[in-house]
């Protein structure tokens, strides 16, 4: 039985948070939805509770992962393939939809049949919605692809409503990636020629706490995640080249991503790993010798001082601005 929109949620041992996410779907003014929850092996009672909820409301579909490989990307792809909606929205288990989110998004997609996706803004909360006035992404004007390649989050995973056929054609999520999977998907979609529009409406809320267990934080500190970042960079480069969209600015942004990962190696007290990663990034992009050497010097300076404050930090940030590693003049701190 088809529905208008499928909400996709991967989960593992996050039952208290998942209840809140599910409640935000159940409270929607638009009712022609299904919530596809794929469990990555929870042992906290998720299976029993969500299965009971699904028995009471057939719009809830609980799917335990049965394939050998796990991870959020695998679970999202299972849910996308199993979904019955004309449209698909990603919703992580700690995030929330506002009550009119689905109604507005479905209406816009049906009124604009040429769109492959429409993108909406997110609020940010720490413990409860409304405890900050921050927006997750400002949606400033400019080159969206360049901004993504500069690690500037133009939109996050829940922001788009996808036309399901396009999402399947694009290939869904890359299951080999440990982090930045939404960044990679969004870049790949743009490079594949996705037709999309950005809307000012704030229609969902993203939980943000600086938690060392979060994937978005671990890719800055966890050595396995830092090493895996190289696969993300390679995937981004392949997508841009395949789309015939490489420019000097986008190439420089990709090199800047490589330097950012090298800085993460320094933060992990691995200067050797930082220099090795920087060498590899420069070799792939065939950067000028002065840029390569400057990066070496900056990484050594960064290692000599405090990571996120002080003179060394300011010198490195000034240099990154000078060599145009970021589109925006204000450099993000702490890897966020």
What does this structure look like?
This protein has two domains: 3-207, Spore Coat Polysaccharide Biosynthesis Protein SpsA, Chain A, CATH 3.90.550; 247-322, no CATH class. The protein has 336 residues and is an alpha/beta fold. Mean pLDDT is 90; it is low at 327-336. An eight-stranded mixed β-sheet has the order 3-2-1-4-7-6-8-5. Helix 2 (46-56) links the parallel strand 2 (33-39) and strand 3 (60-64). It has helices at 15-26, 46-56, 72-82, 101-111, 144-149, 164-170, 181-191, 215-221, 223-242, 248-267, 271-285, 289-304, 310-322, and strands at 3-11, 33-39, 60-64, 85-90, 96-97, 117-125, 160-163, 196-207. It has 13 helices and eight strands. The termini are far apart.
List the secondary-structure elements in sequence, H or E. Answer: EHEHEHEEHEHEHHEHHHHHH
- Straight-line distance between termini: 41 Å
The biggest beta sheet is recorded as:
8 strands, mixed
Spatial strand arrangement across the major sheet: 3-2-1-4-7-6-8-5
Number of helical elements: 13
- Please give the domain count: 2
Q: What do the pLDDT scores average to? A: 90
Annotation, overall tally of beta strands: 8
Q: Using only CA atoms, what is the Rg? A: 21 Å
- Which structural class best describes the helix and strand composition? alpha/beta
Low-confidence residue ranges: 327-336
CATH topology of the largest domain: Spore Coat Polysaccharide Biosynthesis Protein SpsA, Chain A
Which CATH architecture of the largest domain would you pick? Alpha-Beta Complex
Percentage beta strand: 15-25%
The percentage helix is 40-55%
Q: Which term fits the overall shape?
A: globular
CATH structural class of the largest domain = Alpha Beta
Q: CATH homologous superfamily of the largest domain, by name?
A: Spore Coat Polysaccharide Biosynthesis Protein SpsA, Chain A
């Amino acid at each position: 039985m088809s529905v208008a929109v499928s909400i996709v949620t991967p989960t593992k041992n996050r039952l208290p948070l998942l209840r809140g996410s599910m409640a935000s779907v159940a409270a929607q003014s638009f009712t022609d939805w299904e919530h596809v929850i794929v469990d990555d092996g929870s042992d906290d009672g998720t299976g029993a509770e969500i299965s009971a909820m699904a028995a009471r409301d057939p719009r809830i579909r609980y799917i335990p992962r049965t394939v050998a490989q796990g991870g959020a990307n695998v679970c999202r792809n299972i849910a996308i393939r199993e979904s019955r909606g004309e449209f698909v929205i990603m919703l992580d288990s700690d995030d929330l939809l506002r009550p009119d989110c689905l109604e507005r998004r479905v209406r816009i997609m049906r009124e604009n049949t040429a769109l492959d996706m429409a993108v909406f803004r997110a609020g940010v909360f720490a413990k409860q919605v409304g405890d900050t006035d921050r927006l997750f992404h400002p949606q400033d004007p400019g080159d969206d692809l360049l901004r993504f390649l500069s690690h500037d989050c133009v939109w996050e995973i829940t922001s788009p409503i996808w036309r399901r056929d396009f999402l399947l054609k694009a290939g869904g999520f890359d299951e080999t990636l440990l982090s930045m999977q939404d960044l990679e998907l969004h870049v790949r979609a743009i490079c594949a020629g996705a037709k999309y529009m950005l809307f000012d409406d704030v229609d969902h809320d993203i939980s943000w706490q600086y938690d060392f267990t979060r994937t978005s934080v671990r890719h800055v500190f966890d050595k396995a995640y830092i090493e895996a970042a190289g696969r993300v960079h390679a995937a981004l480069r392949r997508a841009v080249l395949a789309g015939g969209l490489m420019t000097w600015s986008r190439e420089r942004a990709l090199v800047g991503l490589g330097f950012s990962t090298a800085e993460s190696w320094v933060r992990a007290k691995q200067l050797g790993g930082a220099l090795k990663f920087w060498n590899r990034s420069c070799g792939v992009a065939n950067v000028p010798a002065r840029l390569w050497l400057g990066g070496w010097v900056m990484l050594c300076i960064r290692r000599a001082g405090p990571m996120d404050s002080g003179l060394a930090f300011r010198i490195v940030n000034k240099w990154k601005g000078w060599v145009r590693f970021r589109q925006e003049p204000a450099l993000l701190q702490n890897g966020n």
